[in-house]
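Subject: sequence -> structure tokens, single chain

Hey, anyone have a minute? Need the predicted structure for the following. Not urgent.
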Amino acid sequence: MTDIDIVFLDAGTISPTVTMPTPAFPHRWTQYARTEAHDRAARLREADCVLTNKVPIDAALLAACPKLRYVGVVATGTNIVDIPACEARGVSVTNVKGYSTQGVAEHALMMMLSLVKQLKAYQQTISEGAWQQAKQFVYYQGRIDNLHGKTLGLVGTGEIARATAQLCGALGMKVLYHSPSGRKQVEGQDCVSLDTLLQQSDVVSLHCPLTAQTEGLMSAEALAKMKPGALLINTARGPIVDSNAVVDALQRGHLGGAGLDVLPQEPPAAEDVVMRANTLPNLLLTPHTAWASEISQQALVQGVIANVNQWYAQTHGNA
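Reply:
Had a minute. Here:
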């Protein structure tokens, strides 16, 4: 029986503490920590299966690698894969859904709480010695608020959005949904227009995929419609948000705070507008780690190999 050649192009996107399961059929496994665009064809020339998290699989690459029959996306979003080109060549494509639902929801909530409690601002002033020099037991740096009683606007209606709604609902927040894809209801609750959500929400949290319709959705015009002092959370995809507009709104005081786990360019350049603004006390940045809890990553790789095994069983018979 001929071994199946499997190549993982960017295995460095998975924590080294995560255990990768072994495919249940004869195979040769090759992995690279990262792969540049110009190295893709050479590394996949003899591959039957490719695993990729963020390395694009496009029509030109498929043409250069005629042996390739399977693309396993090590993530949920498939925007890095030219699906029509794969279909035209009979190349199967799979992804993994639901592996980080709770982790991303918790990360979004963490950012909300950190912003309303002024965590970054207080940590900065403590590091500078302000509390130590205070004349009483308490030191006030900025306005501290609660999430209870506030309105959360969720842009997106999938599993992560609903998990975020459940967590925030338990804290006493009112929840609104907007569906970029046109969904009318979520669990019996009517979705609202984007304008209504922006105008009524104290916190706007993004949980939608990156599509032609959502790219640039949170523009300067959209941000201007938000309540003065409202918070913006993005754990979805960077290009959904206009970074320049967010920094401008923070600096002008229109936005009360922003928590960004994703940026249009990752990793960002040192001169990126958001990186230059990182000293702002009401700007929280995390390096695309909302999805990356240990339990989430383990679920992800389990799903990846389960997909590979299923593809092999369908095309070669059970292992």
